[in-house]
Structure prediction request, 274 residues.
Amino acid sequence: MSEFAIQVKNVDFSYQENEPVLNNISFNIKKGQYVCLIGHNGSGKSTLAKLLVYLIEPMHGEIYINDLLLCEENTKKIRETVGIVFQNPDNQFIGSTVEDDIAFGLENRCVAHENMQKIVREYAEKVDMAKYLEKEPSELSGGQKQRVAIAGILALNLDIIIFDEATSMLDPEGVEEIKRLIFNMRKANPNLTFISITHDVEEAYLSDYVILLNKGNIYKEGTPFEVFENTNDLAELGLDLPFVLKVKKALKEKGMNIPTNIKSIEELSDYLCK
Ligand code: ADP
Prediction:
C-alpha cells in the first residue's frame, strides 16, 4: 500500500469533443491530508471531483483510490472508500424524510436496522438536525438540506470525503460548526483524507495542501504558503490573498522589512512586538 489516498495520472476530460475541460492533470494526495482545490469558476474543480468519485470517466489517464484503479469492476469498492457532498442539496436528497435520507447510504451497505437508527441519530445530532428527522425535504431550508447531505456522507465512515462547496448555504456560524465536526473526525481518524473545493482562502491557507486550478490545468500546487505567498496574479485567478499575507504585504508597502518566511498571524505579531 502506498502513502497516497489519491493518485491522478495524466488525466484529460471533456464533456464535448474538442472542448477540453481538464488537460493532462497529475497530482497525488497523501492519506490523512486536508486538501483544498481552489480556482476560478469554470476552472474544472467540480469536474475533477466527479472524476475522483467515478461519476464520470477520464478520456485519458488513470486515477487510483487507495491504490485501486478507478474502473467499472472496482466501483463497489470505490463507493465504500470515497464519498462526495455537492453544493446543490436538491440534487442529492434521495429519501422522503431527513431520517430516510441519512439512512440511504447505510442501507446500501446493509447496516443492520438497529445499528442504522443509532448511526442516523448520531450524525443528525452532529449536524444539528436531530429535531428534523421526520421532516420532508420541502420543509427544509437550503442550508438545512446541506446539513442533511453532509450527515449522510459522514455517517458512512469513509476513508476519503470530498466537499464540493458543501457548506455554501450555511451561515458563518454553521460553516464553523461543520469545520469543527470535520476537525474532530480527522482527529479521531488520522487516515481520513478530506478534500474541500472552496472559495474560502482562509480555509485553504489552513489546509495541508493546496491545488490551484486554472482553465483546466494545475496552475500551482504545494503547501498553502508556497501557493499563496509566491503567486502574484491571484486576483486574475479569482482568488484573494489570505489575511495574514495581506497584512504582510501592506506592512512591506509601508517600507517595513518583514521576513519572507513569516507564515502565521502569531509569527507576525511576535516579530512586530520585538
Ligand atoms: P468549477 O467547478 O471550477 O467551477 P466545472 O468543473 O464545473 O468548474 O466546469 C468546468 C468547465 O466544464 C466549464 O467550462 C463548464 O461550463 C463545463 N461543464 C461543467 N459541467 C458540464 C456539463 N455537464 N456539460 C458540459 N459542460 C460542462
Observations:
- The mean pLDDT is 94.
- The radius of gyration is 20 Å.
